[in-house]
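Tutorial handout. Part one gives the primary structure; part two gives the three-dimensional structure as tokens.
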Amino acid sequence: MSGLMSALNAGKTSLRTSQKAVEIAGNNIANVNTPGYSRQKAVFQPVPSLELRGFFIGQGVNINNIAREHDVFLTRQIHDKSGQLGEESSRAAPMAELERIFSVAENNLSTEIDRFFDSWKELSANPAGQTERQIVLQRGDLLARSFDDAVTSLRSSQRNINASIESKITAINPVLQEIADLNLRISTVEISGQSANTDRDRRDMLIEQVSRELGATYYEENGKVSLQLPGGQPLVQDTEAMTLEPQLDASLNLQLVLRTGPSSTTELSSDMVGGEFRGLMNVRDEIIPDRMAELDHLAYSLAYEVNQLHSGGVDLDGNAAGDFFTATPLDPSDPAAPEDGFAKALATVFSDTRQVAAAQSGLGDPNIGDNRNALDIAALADDLTVMDNEDSFTGYFSKITSKVGIEAARAQTSAQGLEDAMVQIRNMRDATVGVSLEEEMVDLMQYQKGFEASAKFLAVVDELMDSLLTLKR
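Part two.
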């Protein structure tokens, strides 16, 4: 009788484990489309054998653990590539905006520069013409406005980046806190000998998100991960999460601050972070200021060259002329030349058409036809030495435009290449640890047959026990 009882127990455990294995396979099938889900697999272990009349008889089978398929190498690759992809892809929108500002279309700053000098050429054909003089002043105003619009658009792009960074800060702090909470939950579950597979999947997804946005790296110890920025600053330690905060500096520029304690903060530069934050901060703090400085230099040099010639001429009344544009700049070759903000401040000095100096010398009506100064100013358009002795005004602007275009194309190409690499790595991950419906169906059939066999085995044992009891009756 004891032998039949042992057989009954073996059948019971077999039936129970087959049922549980079917449930695990069903859960895998249900999560086949769940992002980040890792396939789970039942780990079977025989029940320790018992000695029965000199023989060791098995007592059935149990599911010892539900293992999570996991590839550390591929997971690390995904997290590393996520940071690089985030950095390059985050540049796409602001760089597209810069391409619009420094457009190669017909109506751009280069066109306004050409039209300004063309108006001087038209004035040289009729130096005393009020219409031609009015056009010169209008073109000067439009040129100044074009510089102002370009700078305003660049500053607007910086504000848009600040708004984007601020929204990302708001979104990333709860993610960091959730990772810290998952650290506590996973370590608590696993220290009791259980598996926290779903929580680990969730944590991996969150780490990938933080890697994409901040370029964070991590290491794991005792079931807990510690996250840190590329500069070494901690984001998550054990079960404690740090917080990111936006902070305005003296110039009202948004700065990124990491709070590691009630009274402890660290200001983060673009070199101390990675991912999307680094890409956005790089455009805001380096690329846009560099383009602003180049616009200032262009406006400064143009105003200097025009003023030098204009102030050396005479107006329609024969009086010595003054500057055409505001505030005579110093020589651009002087290192101390105050160029900062000049593109925004550029404006024409006067509005009276009679003050336009088309002539170089002479007084009164006999010299009204003098157009030498207008010709000299018009000739600046084709002078290849006015910008650092190596470029024309439009040539210099074309170089600025090409820099923006090259950087935008490079970021787009790099982002596309990284995206393709991510797709390949994800495909490798799915092939290694993802759910395959074909495999699950095979396993499901196997567990189903096992369940049916166990049920048949129990029926046989039941019949044997009934026969035995009948003999005793």
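Part three, for discussion. The chain has eleven helices and eleven strands. The CA atoms of residues 11 and 459 lie 9 Å apart.
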